[in-house]
Write a structure and sequence with these properties.
The chain has 13 helices and 11 strands. The chain is α/β, with parallel strands linked by helices and about 375 residues long. It has one domain: Peroxisomal Thiolase, Chain A, domain 1, CATH 3.40.47. A 9-stranded mixed sheet has the order 3-2-4-7-1-8-11-10-9. The two termini are about 20 Å apart. This is Acetyl-CoA acetyltransferase.
């Protein structure tokens, strides 16, 4: 089986771009990634594309060129981008192809996501109770977690403060202004305990990654960023996931637990070997919970982590160095690939003001989506 390398990256800035469609933002990212890799569109042997609300990714061939390329669409909730990357790497690992593409984009309307119970095999009462509104579900979930593990609301505020500070240093981020913690804590409440600064917003953006075999990567002469592991897993029995209608007394882990465990096993390393991490943070509490679910700390230790600055850019494990979803927003198809884009930037040493010091060699990304799917990637320079 061939090793897989990321040899080209491209991104359309996240946020709101009036007059530019989601497809166009994806095409922008693809062209940037092709240029970064030093190849042309006809060189691409296959593509996997992710989008939730902005059209079928394969239609971008109208703009890129009608080469007859194999192009497969992926739709998998917030893990769509990670799932596209997981699928794309298999074509190269198998030896069938030498070079291909994973691309994701979206352009969501303003306001909360409008999911319906029937789409997730849930009864109508679940929607009538308000739990299809994800702000309410995640607020309930973090309240339970905070009570169980003695985590303060101020720690949620510190996560958001870090996100906006990091986002101010990332050219592709939507929210480019730091926000003081007092303003975060005192802002209007959306769903207790979350103020408006503790949630991300649906957004727009596009990301593309060019993947290649080791032989092709060496031919291109690009920085050798190896995809050591890519996993995508669904939820086990007893997990408490978004759009879950109940909580089992006996917990059975989560989709993230499984995806993380398997990724570390494939890569042959552990959490202590990771130099930089991007973790799903659709709300401030998600980053906290995912720190533990991915094995980087024990439940409850997040209070000390945030107080001591251990997840800052200069800390022992920098987390969400470009501001994550809180600062970038969440265009579903692109969000998971943005994390990998940021990790490639960090491993290349091209992060500028947000660059992690001491030449990071390993990078981890984790994306989570409804109704309990999770994707993890581990990169190595």
């Amino acid at each position: 089986m061939s090793d897989v390398y990321i040899v080209g990256i491209g991104i359309h800035p996240f946020g709101r771009t009036d007059g530019v469609s989601g497809i166009d933002q994806g095409v922008f990212a693809v062209r940037q990634a092709l240029s970064d890799a030093g190849i042309e569109w006809p060189d691409v042997q296959f593509a996997y594309g992710a989008s939730d609300a902005a059209g079928n990714p394969d239609t971008m061939v109208d703009r890129l060129g009608l080469t007859g390329v194999q192009f497969i669409n992926v739709r998998n909730g917030c893990a769509a981008g990670g799932s596209a990357l997981f699928s794309a790497q298999t074509a190269i690992k198998s030896g069938e192809c030498d070079i291909g593409l994973a691309v994701g984009f979206d352009k969501h309307p303003r306001g909360a996501f409008n999911a319906k119970p029937s789409e997730y095999n849930l009864p109508e009462w679940y929607g009538d109770a308000g739990y299809m509104v994800t702000t309410q579900f995640f607020a309930n979930k973090i309240m339970r977690y905070m009570q169980m593990h003695d985590i303060s609301r101020e720690t949620l505020g510190r996560v958001a403060e870090k996100a906006f500070r990091n986002g101010s240093k990332a050219p592709h981020a939507w929210r480019r202004q730091p926000v003081p913690i007092d303003e975060i804590m005192e802002a209007p409440m959306v769903s207790d305990p979350y103020s408006k600064y503790m949630f991300c917003s649906p957004a727009e953006g596009g990301v593309a990654l060019v993947l290649a075999s080791e032989k092709k990567a060496r031919e291109l002469g690009k920085p050798m960023v190896r995809l050591k592991a890519a996993t995508m897993r669904t939820r086990p029995p007893g997990s408490f996931e978004v759009f879950a209608p109940s909580v089992d007394v006996e917990r059975g882990g989560s989709a993230t637990n499984i995806a993380s465990r398997d990724a570390f096993e494939i890569a042959g390393i552990g959490p202590g070997d990771i130099d930089v991490a991007q973790l799903q943070d659709t709300e401030a509490g998600a980053e906290l919970m995912h720190m533990a679910e991915n094995g980087f700390c024990a439940d409850g230790d997040q209070e000390e982590w945030l107080a001591e600055g251990w997840s800052e850019i200069g800390g022992k494990l920098p987390v969400n160095t470009d501001g994550g979803c809180l600062a970038c927003g969440e265009p579903i198809g692109a969000s998971g690939l943005r994390q990998v884009y940021e990790n490639v930037v960090q491993l290349r040493g091209e992060g500028g003001e947000r660059q992690v010091p001491d030449n990071p060699r390993t990078a981890y990304s984790h994306v989570y989506g409804a109704p309990g799917v999770s994707a993890v990637t581990i990169l190595e320079r």
